[in-house]
Amino acid sequence: QNTNGNIPLGTVNNCGSGRTPWGTYLTCEENFNNYFGASGSLNLTEGQERYGFSQEGDGYGWYKFDKRFDLSDEDYANEQNRFGWIVEIDPFDASKKPVKRTAMGRVKHEAVAIAQSASGRIAAYMGDDQRFDYCYRYVSNKPWKTAIADNESPLDDGKLYVARFDDDGTGQWLELSIDNPALAARFDSQAELLIYTRVAADIVGATPMDRPEWTTIGKNGEIFWTLTNNTERTEPNAANPQAPNGDGHIIRMYDGGDHLGASFEWDIFILASSTRQTEETFTDPDAAFADVDGRLFIGTDGGQPDGLQNQLIVFDTNQHPPVPKRLLVGVAGDEVTGFSITPEQVPNMSN
Q: Which of 1, 62, 95, 325 is deepest in the core (most CB within 10 A)?
């Protein structure tokens, strides 16, 4: 609550991005907790612990100079909840303020990919980049063109889901709604639920993943998820079959064909460890983009084998089993962080 008249300001730790069919740009707030700390005593709440807040943050020390980032300052008790969102920016109209689309949930957003259904409703796929966190989908209630015509945002009126991956190659989208009695028993409102999206996902039984980062939509509507790594995993599950998982993997999902269904099918597209001892070895998949021709581009973020630096690789998704082809290798200490793509190469995004 804004009881002290504090004005929301800024966006921090922007990571990956996404584009919308209506021509705006989405930027994703990731490790926002690192900027907060406490000058006084701090007793962390369940929600603060779940998002990784701590006494000194990540050493940035902002809380020493800006009260907004001081967790022990009661006048700014809500400031911590203002970060961790998808932020929409209109690159063609500088007079429009960026807007945080809170209906899409508050997590450590890595990136977002949007697909259109046949009816014009949109589905946004988002990973929460932390070990043992989750894969999410947001679905608009209206076709996006209808919402825009009604002077509404398709990203403000919709339903948020989290994924449960079952052992048989199927899965369920579990809605995160205050109408669920188990969530109503924990949260006072949908707004509070969205602030603590991770806690809600814990309650409904989502599948803990190996750092879900980027998502991208393939030419046939399939969704690719990059799971960068998880060296802390001790017990494998079907969707995260290696423990520990130091190299990462990519999951391919088929979401009912139209992106609106309650269930999905999935498989392991590739385990990065399977490329070791090959000429095209790679690990730690991160940035991802699939084009209209069936190519899947992957940028890496992490220690690469065989003395390589981080790299950009490409798959022909029509080839089985998939074989990576290296396009470039970066400089020492780099990360391949994303892509800029001409519109005609983006599947399912025409206006």
A: 62
